[in-house]
């Protein structure tokens, strides 16, 4: 029998990018919160600039709960199942924000209205066959104040492109109106990034520095970025990269409203006979505890959110919590992050330092920023060029078919070219489809005996066409900057990824969505769900800022509607 | 394809010491490396620039010699400068096989034995006694899978790729882990080293940066515990 703990107002399951943000608006409203986190606290002393530990041996993610729960994957319901060797997310206070790239985008307006805008502009027949895409229950203007709140509360560097309708060519001219500029100017450019920026302008495009949750100057007593080059899969040695472990979590603790419990491995979300949340059960050091709460906010990663719901079966919810409409696990998307382009230049780029968030973006071919009338797909891709290189990965470069992979000839090639390549990052529209979903694996289990999540998903025609277009444009861009060779890389698969969406989609219709427009379950009024699992479209850019804006909004709604939610 | 003069002289030494391996009658299938190695003179840590080789930690001496020779063909010491031998890539792998790579210990044991046996059966000489060109031809067989009939427990190409990957890690990774000795790997590809505060000038095209030649752990700023777990 689990030990019963003292009841609290709200229990948040997972203190990562989403849960870690939600605790502050709750604390500010005087609500008591227990935050359960499977990982521990880490500090900047843990974040050595060490490619072997961080990148080769996946230290940030090793010895973690997530590593024991790596989802399985199959392309379709008839295909064989495989399992990746590691999980790209980590468990810690702050979650994967500890080692993420910290690109901090707002979605574009089209992402909220894919169905209605596509229908209006091109006709309903242009929605890809088999897609389950819906408009979001609101437009970007509803989310703008929360984007703004998170940008200022946590610190985001960037160049605005549209302040209240006034276009600024230095920023993203395609972004929705924002109420004010970013709290900090963008991260600085580099010689190579300047070169790429000029090349994009020469093509008639609109390049701009991307937004980053990294300080370009000291902000709120945290240091500015030192550009040391180990940001990718590494934590920040000066706390310039934001994570909620540095801001919203300690602020909520200082208010005396947040109790953080680390190494808490949640095993069930518990309901009473009427199907209302009573709290959650977790294990730490082999001991079981029951944490009673008036409200549960589930804030795990996308795979874990669906899995926890499906594992939490009860009389009221025989197919899993909040799953009486069979929607849990549906509308899964994993961002098109692969299908990049690698280029070789005839001179050194001096890209040994910097970070993935220090770069230049082109949005001309993203979303519906260009006319799709004569095309056979919808959506597009954001093109991103960055300054990111480490010695082992540099020496592991491909040789563009010019030499063997080892020996003296290879050595000469790598000595000459290790600092002459660049691989772009192309994020593309991915839509939800009937055939892409999450459920429980029938055979593979975690060490506690619970089934792991199973991904059934494959890129469809629309995604493949968008990827081909983005690679063509990227190749054109590299060539304009003087590249002497380019290589389009494969699209990969929809296996476990850092950009996973859906499974608990947000929408007004309970027949097709798990949570309502505020992020609360249609079936369980005192269960809220946070994370990219509620997003109904992927957009063509990193999800974290949107996840955080949604988390703030759901928490604020809870604080303002406490009686209705807990009645 | 100039080779490291020191390893050439070592090969000469072995040659003169008697080609016992060539005269051996081979059993079919896998020859345990220890048995195969008995065929050659008990010689001989490979000649080390600047001194003695480190004691082996997880491999046998014979396995370490063979691995060292393979690494030295993957990134040769040649007219363009030092390679995996000088970087001590094999030492990096040997050490890691007791820590982060311990799950691969058996793969190394069986893979090295299979490679030694394949070499004896197909070339009639131990790998260490072949010249660079013939060593390369054996490794190409292993890389392409042509050696698969020689008793490799898994695809021989997978074994080669694993060794190649670890050779690169041992040559271009932080010296804390036992490779990249004297920063030869970083100097080879022009990586100017760890800088904790990078200036705008450092990111200019054409900037000429002086190598820092520091390990991440030369400063007291970072916890070593996790890295130690991986190193030992």
What this model shows, in words?
The complex is a heterodimer of chains A (567) and B (232). With 567 residues, chain A is an alpha/beta fold. Chain A has helices spanning 19-28, 51-56, 114-122, 140-155, 191-202, 248-254, 302-311, 391-395, 408-417, 461-480, 544-560, 562-566; strands at residues 3-4, 8-13, 33-36, 72-74, 82-83, 162-163, 166-167, 208-209, 258-261, 265-271, 277-284, 287-298, 330-334, 341-344, 359-362, 381-386, 421-423, 425-428, 437-445, 451-456, 485-488, 500-503, 527-529. In chain A, helix 1 (19-28) links the parallel strand 2 (8-13) and strand 3 (33-36). In chain A, helix 4 crosses helix 11 (544-560). Chain A is globular, with a radius of gyration of 23 Å. The mean pLDDT of chain A is 97. Chain B has one domain (5-231). In chain B, helix 6 crosses helix 9 (156-172). Chain B is elongated and about 55 Å long. The two termini of chain B are 36 Å apart. The chains are: A alpha/beta (567), B mainly alpha (232). Chains A and B meet through helix 2, helix 5, helix 8 and helix 9 of A and helix 8, helix 9, helix 10 and helix 11 of B.
């Amino acid at each position: 029998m689990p030990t019963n703990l003292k009841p609290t107002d709200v229990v948040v399951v997972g203190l990562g990018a989403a849960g870690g943000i939600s605790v502050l608006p709750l604390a500010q409203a005087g609500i008591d919160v227990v935050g359960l986190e499977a990982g521990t606290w880490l500090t900047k002393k843990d974040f050595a600039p060490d490619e072997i530990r961080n990148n080769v041996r996946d230290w940030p993610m090793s010895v973690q709960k997530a590593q024991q729960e790596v989802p399985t994957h199959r392309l379709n319901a008839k295909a064989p199942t495989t399992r990746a060797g590691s999980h790209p997310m980590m468990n810690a206070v702050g979650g994967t924000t500890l080692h993420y790239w910290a690109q901090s985008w707002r979605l574009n307006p089209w992402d909220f209205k894919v169905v209605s805008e596509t229908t209006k502009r091109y006709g309903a027949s242009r929605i890809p066959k088999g897609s389950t895409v819906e408009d979001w229950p609101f437009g970007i203007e509803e989310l703008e104040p929360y984007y703004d709140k998170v940008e200022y509360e946590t610190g985001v560097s960037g160049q605005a492109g549209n302040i209240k309708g006034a276009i600024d060519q230095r920023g993203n001219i395609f972004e929705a109106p924002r109420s004010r500029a970013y709290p900090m100017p963008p991260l600085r450019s580099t010689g190579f990034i300047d070169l790429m920026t000029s090349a994009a302008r020469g093509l008639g495009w609109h390049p701009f520095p991307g937004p980053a949750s990294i300080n370009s100057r000291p902000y709120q007593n945290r240091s500015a970025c030192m550009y040391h080059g180990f940001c990718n899969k590494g934590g920040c040695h000066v706390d310039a990269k934001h994570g909620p472990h540095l801001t919203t979590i300690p602020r909520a603790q200082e208010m005396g409203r947040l109790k953080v419990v680390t190494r808490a491995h949640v095993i069930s979300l518990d309901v009473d006979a009427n199907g209302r949340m009573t709290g959650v059960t977790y294990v730490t050091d082999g001991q079981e505890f029951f944490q009673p709460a008036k409200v549960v906010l589930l804030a795990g990663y996308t795979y874990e959110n669906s899995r926890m719901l499906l594992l939490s079966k009860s009389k009221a919810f025989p197919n899993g919590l909040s799953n009486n409409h069979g929607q849990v696990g549906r509308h899964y998307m994993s961002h098109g992050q692969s299908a990049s382009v690698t280029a070789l230049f005839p001179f050194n780029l001096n890209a040994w330092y910097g970070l993935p968030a220090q770069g230049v973006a082109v949005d001309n071919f993203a979303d519906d920023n260009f006319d799709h009338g004569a095309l056979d797909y919808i959506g597009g891709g954001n093109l991103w060029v960055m300054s990111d290189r480490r010695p082992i990965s540099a020496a592991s470069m491909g040789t563009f078919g010019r030499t063997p992979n080892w020996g003296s000839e290879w050595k000469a090639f790598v000595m000459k070219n290790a600092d002459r390549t660049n691989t772009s990052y192309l994020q593309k529209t991915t839509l939800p489809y009937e055939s892409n979903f999450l459920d429980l694996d029938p055979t593979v289990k975690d060490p506690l005996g619970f089934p792991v999540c199973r991904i059934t998903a494959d890129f469809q025609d629309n995604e493949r066409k968008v990827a081909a277009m983005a690679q063509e444009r990227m190749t054109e861009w590299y060539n304009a900057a003087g590249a002497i060779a380019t290589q389009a890389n494969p699209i990969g698969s929809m296996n476990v990824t850092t950009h996973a969406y859906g499974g608990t989609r947000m929408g007004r219709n309970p027949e097709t969505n798990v949570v309502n427009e505020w992020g609360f379950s249609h079936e369980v009024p005192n269960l809220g769900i946070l994370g990219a699992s509620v997003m109904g479209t992927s957009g063509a850019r990193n999800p974290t800022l949107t996840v955080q804006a949604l988390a703030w909004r759901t928490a604020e709604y809870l604080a303002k509607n406490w009686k209705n939610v807990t009645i | 394809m100039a080779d490291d003069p020191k390893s050439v002289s070592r090969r000469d030494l072995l040659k003169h010491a008697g080609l016992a391996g060539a005269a051996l009658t081979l059993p079919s299938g896998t020859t345990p490396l220890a048995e195969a190695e008995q065929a050659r003179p008990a010689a001989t840590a490979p000649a080390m620039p600047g001194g003695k080789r480190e004691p082996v930690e997880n491999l046998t001496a014979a396995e370490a010699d063979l691995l060292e020779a393979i690494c030295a063909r993957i990134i040769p010491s040649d007219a363009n400068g030092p390679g995996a031998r000088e970087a001590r890539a094999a030492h990096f792998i040997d050490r890691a096989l007791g820590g982060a790579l311990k799950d691969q210990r058996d793969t190394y044991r069986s893979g090295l034995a299979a490679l030694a046996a394949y070499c004896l059966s197909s070339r009639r000489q131990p790998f260490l006694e072949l010249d660079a060109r013939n060593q390369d031809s054996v490794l190409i067989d292993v890389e392409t899978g042509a050696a698969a009939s020689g008793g490799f427990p898994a695809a021989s190409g997978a074994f080669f790729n694993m060794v190649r990957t670890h050779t690169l890690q041992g040559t271009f990774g932080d010296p804390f882990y036992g490779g990249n000795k004297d920063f030869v790997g970083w100097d080879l590809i022009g990586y100017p080293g760890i800088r904790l505060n990078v200036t705008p000038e450092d990111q200019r095209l054409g900037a000429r940066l002086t190598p820092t030649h520091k390990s991440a752990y030369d400063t007291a700023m970072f916890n070593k515990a996790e890295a130690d777990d991986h190193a030992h």
